[in-house]
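Regression test case RT-17, inverse folding.

Input:
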């Protein structure tokens, strides 16, 4: 069985490789649109559609040997979903809103095979430090926030954004490996 990551996220690829998974990347062209009735269900819908799109584009013979992994991360503050920033101004507004406050990160993972689709979702509570304008502007100048939901990466520790978190660190990075590793290992080893 061949693992295919339906994402161009370098963090997801790195997490999978760190945990010993060999993979190929085929970026899904699924456009996130519409929302389900909760952030969790929205992340699950997007993850499933991303993985299914890549799976459907494979030839029938390739589908028999493929395990396609799609993922979607959503940051939620006060019941509002914070996606990837569309501009520097957008990133600033998100980071300012998160400053000194708690929010939740949901990452849904969809694993699609020819026999079954698995959905696993993690939820992590994250509390930000109080951020100064200087820290926010320096962080934005680094370019790091621009490709991340909520305009931040928990792994960007040099900026001291996160005060504490409860739940999966890898979830906040974009792939709750603890939830999906047992399934991937079982499927790929068959």
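Golden output:
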């Amino acid at each position: 069985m061949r693992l295919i990551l339906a994402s161009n996220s370098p963090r997801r690829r790195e997490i999978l490789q760190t945990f010993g998974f060999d993979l190929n990347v085929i970026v899904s062209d699924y456009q996130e649109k519409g929302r389900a009735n909760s952030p969790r269900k929205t992340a699950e819908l997007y993850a499933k559609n991303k993985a299914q799109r890549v799976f459907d584009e494979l030839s029938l013979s390739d589908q028999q040997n493929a395990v396609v992994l799609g993922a979607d991360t959503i940051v939620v503050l006060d019941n509002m979903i914070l996606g990837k920033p569309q501009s520097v101004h957008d990133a600033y507004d998100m980071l300012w809103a998160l400053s000194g406050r708690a929010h939740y990160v949901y990452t849904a993972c969809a694993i699609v095979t020819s026999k079954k689709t698995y959905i696993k979702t993690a939820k992590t509570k994250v509390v930000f430090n109080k951020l100064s304008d200087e820290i926010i502007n320096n962080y934005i100048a680094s370019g790091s926030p621009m490709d991340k939901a909520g305009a931040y990466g928990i792994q960007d520790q040099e900026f001291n954004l996160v005060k504490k978190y409860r739940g999966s660190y890898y979830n906040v990075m974009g792939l709750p490996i603890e939830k999906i590793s047992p399934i991937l290992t079982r499927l790929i080893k068959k």
